[in-house]
Amino acid sequence: AGSSSPIVWGDRVFVTSYSGSGPNVSRTLHCLNRTDGSSVWDFKVDNRGTEDGMQGYITEHGYASNTPVTDGKLIYVFFGKMGVYAIDFDGKKKWEASIGKMSSNRRWGSGSSPVLYNDLLIVNAADEGRALFAFDKSTGAIQWKSEADGYELSYNTPTVVAKHEELVVAVPGELWGVNLKTGKLKWFAQTNLTGNVSPTTILDGETVYTFGGYRSSGSHAYPVGGKKDVTDTEKWYGRSSSYVATPLLHEGHLYWFDDKGMAFCTKASDGEVVYRERIDGLSRGGRPVYASPVLAGDRIYVVSRYDGTFVLPARPEYKILAQNKFSGDDSDASGTPAICGDEMFLRTGKFLYCVGTP
């Protein structure tokens, strides 16, 4: 089971999964042959008695929500309170590091994915350590650690702004710009994104868009590269928002499905809503979409949890072009698919699929 996304490098596909729950959970990084899906190797970490029980939102996403990342030499995985691991392409551990064993007050588990920048591996350990970590990607040595209670309930993956050497991370009630070299706070802005913040901040040149918060509490646009309090530099605020999924930015527009079964398109320039439509064929109630939309050619693909994949035109015109479901698979699909060439790699709670033209 799991809700992380697969990643592809050359002729290999990597994806994580888990079995068991709470103190008895184990996690695995799978390496598969890209051509036929056969197993090349598995790297498994057995339980260490540190994880929270299967409760609250952990029942929604499980214990394998963090997508791995690779530089072509090592694969880096974040396994919650079990730590961070660097694995070589033969399935051997290069290093491991602890990031803490704390829990948020809501005990919702881990959600953020690791990020590579030059020689650094960045990990948002909001749940486990109330901190951002920067590791030497080759050795696992901590280069810096940024601690703050404000990180609690920040489940988004940090966004690298290379030009300004900063990380942008959304936390409850604020947006932070963190110095990539030191971990020190460079700037902050007050936002309306209260409670848990899951969508990753989107970089668009000199602007970032941030979404999420409890009950999808809105969206903001801010310039990057600021100093101290930049709240007054806000470019726009919109009431429309995603709850978990990160919206797709394409040709000046932002696209997403929200947790109430609505499809959105807004202008990136000012947040104006272009369309807001109820999605026929998508289950009502609960949270029908966790995966983020992806672009392939002139189509947008949105994977729902139980109703298959929806296909829309990649332009500001609402239309469902197709809805495709895997027969015989009743498990949830919460991970964002990976697009590589003319193939799509999509995981559900039970299977990993490769979709393409034979």
The gist of it:
The chain is an all-beta fold and 358 residues long.
Note the beta-strand portion: 35-45%
In whole angstroms, how far apart are the ends? 27 Å
| Overall geometric form | globular
- Compute the gyration radius: what is it? 19 Å
Q: What is the top-level CATH class of the largest domain?
A: Mainly Beta
The pLDDT mean sits at 95
Question: Biggest β-sheet, characterized?
Answer: 5 strands, mixed
The level of helicity is under 10%
| CATH architecture title of the largest domain | Beta Barrel
- State the total count of DSSP E strands: 32
Structural class: mainly beta
Q: Tell me the count of domains.
A: 3
Q: What is the spatial order of strands in the main beta sheet?
A: 13-14-15-16-20
User: How many separate helices?
Assistant: 2
- Say what the CATH topology of the largest domain is: Lipocalin
Low-confidence runs (pLDDT<50, min 5 residues)? none
Give an account of the 3D structure.
This protein is mostly beta strands and 358 residues long. The protein has three domains: 147 residues, Lipocalin (Beta Barrel); 86 residues, Thrombin, subunit H (Beta Barrel), CATH 2.40.10; 106 residues, Lipocalin, CATH 2.40.128. It is 2% helix and 42% strand. It contains two helices and 32 strands. A five-stranded mixed beta sheet has the order 13-14-15-16-20, with no helix packed on it. A four-stranded antiparallel beta sheet has the order 1-2-3-4, with no helix packed on it. A four-stranded antiparallel beta sheet has the order 5-6-7-8, with no helix packed on it. β5 and β6 form a beta hairpin. The longest helix has 4 residues. The protein is globular. It starts with 6 loop residues before the first strand and ends with a strand. The model has no long low-confidence stretch (mean pLDDT 95).
